[in-house]
Amino acid sequence: CGGDPTHSHRRRAPAVITPPSRPLEWGDINIIHTTDTHGWLLGHQKKSAPEPNYSGTLGDFSSFVTHMKDVALKKDVDLLLVDTGDLHDGTGLTDGYPAGGTDAHDSDKFFAQLPYDLLAIGNHELYHYEDTLDMYKNFIPKFKGRYLSSNANITIPDSGGKPISVPVGNRYAKFKTRKGRKVTSLGVIFDFTDNDKGTTVQKVQDMVKEKWFLNAIKDEPDLFLLAGHMPVQRNDWPLVFNAIRKIHPLTPIVILGGHSHVRDCTQLDDRSMSLESGRYMETVGWLSTKLDDNKTKKKIDFSRRYLDANRITYEYHTGLKQTNFDTSLGKSITVGLLALAKKFNLGYFYGTAPRDYTLTQDPYPSTGSALSLFIANAVPYALAQNNPRAKIPNFIIANSGSQRFDIYSGSFTKNDLLTASPYDDPFLYIPDIPFSLAKEVLAALNKPSVKSDRAELASGSVNKIYTEWLRDMSKVKTGKKKGASDTLGYVTRDVSLPCYLVFKALTELATIKSCPGDGDDTPHTPLPYFPVPEYISSKPPKVSDKTPVDLVFANIAKKPIIANLNLLQKVKVYTPLDAQKYSPVLLNEAIGIYAKAEWK
Ligand SMILES: O=c1ccn([C@@H]2O[C@H](COP(=O)(O)O)[C@@H](O)[C@H]2O)c(=O)[nH]1
């Protein structure tokens, strides 16, 4: 980048879209994979790089899938469509509903128009009971047994009104492909612990001991297709994989993961491949396999690819043009989503953002940091409005994971607000905390801890996996020739690093092998990267260390903040009851209130 990094990305030139570098490799069974879509169903609409790489709408994707199904028919091979969860939280289409509505209720209706063969539940389907219930009643039945939640339950009243806990979707699915191949599928979620009351998540290590699980994997299919909201590195997939391998040493196993928002691919053995396909409708994953007779241990032929989700990609791989690409279903999905955006008033204008604010392409803190904009400017301003406590010095803490996307210069709308900051979390406070203690709490929250992989994921530091991926990518030398026109974007290297070790069957250490070759469908130049702390704070008030301040924090940070207050002092034992509501302003309103006042 060179020079002052806070100035170098103030406004990027509009980007062009680079086409894919080579055709896809087709096999006997081919899979198109989406994950962590988080409501980005109208695609990425900004003109600054790398956004146009991801500008395909769900309607464009639907047309792509229809044409790919035709190609599969012509080739006489199987093509399956799989999603691995986190449909909720992320854009105005999911979160911009009017009062009394339910997150993703309307956007899910469009998602359900795609011919998914298999879906798995994500953690964002479990943060709020009403969202899970809405999925259970209105979305999941549309998939006729193919929406899986192997280890996630919902509590509902039975016919007599007594509460019973039942799987949100199905525990497993067994089906035959068009070509008659037998498939056994599971839909597993990581050991998520922030789920709402009325939902339960069973630990994966316990799930694999269940009778239903052992029964489900007993008979040998042609393929085990394991979908799940669980990263393909550093998590519990080996528990499921090993349980199957014990009984079926040679059966092909395909794993489709999610949650950590990265492009990634690993191989737990020579007859298996695990693929993770990014986030936010930026990436469409492709996996193909050529099957054999399952008689020997020899390598199975797999291929994988990470497609940039845009029309140029879709047209390239289907051999179609602008003029004959759109199907009527695809067009109607895009038109319907645009109407939903209108109904939710997502074009509502807050102001003109004077520059780009990024989560990781500018240092934190800095004027170009979206985290600084949020916690140092927007939140203090918004929380001070009509607040009787505004005159008392405060120190505000939030998790950086609460901010989900960059803000681009120009018109800043309701949709931009909800993509940057989607969570409707209240702000709480604990009064009379000595300022020195408030600062110590922040430092303790950001202290690197030696957590197990499972605990890391449970505590939500999945963000760390994503940002480490961005960091590694920013160091990759692309070997671009002078004058070549690679655009900014993801530059994936599926490398097995020594730290990527997992416990195989909880006893034996194993390195997870990465997939060979280049996974990216389109070559790019990597984006700049700056590290981000897990917790961020407002500018310190100008008071002495002893001065009592209001310690203000986002509700999601309540548990760790109270735990650290109790670790760092012994005068008082703090409980959740000490945390009171600080302001009626919610987390996802703060930047809007600030933008209205400051970005004329
Ligand atoms: O209400 C909420 C819910 C979640 N978060 C934060 O989001 C990430 C997890 O999101 P993934 O898409 O599953 O990565 C994590 O940092 C949570 O703490 C939140 O801030 N508020």
TrEMBL record:
Keywords: Signal. Residues 356-561 form the Putative 5'-nucleotidase C-terminal domain. PROSITE patterns: PROKAR_LIPOPROTEIN. PANTHER family: 5'-NUCLEOTIDASE-RELATED, ADL392WP. One of its GO terms (biological process) is nucleotide catabolic process. This is Putative 5'-nucleotidase C-terminal domain-containing protein. GO terms for molecular function: hydrolase activity. It comes from the Eukaryota. GO terms for cellular component: cytosol; extracellular region. InterPro entries: 5'-Nucleotdase_C_sf, 5_nucleotidase/apyrase, Metallo-depent_PP-like, Nucleosidase_C, Pesterase_C1039, YHR202W_N. Coiled coil: none annotated.
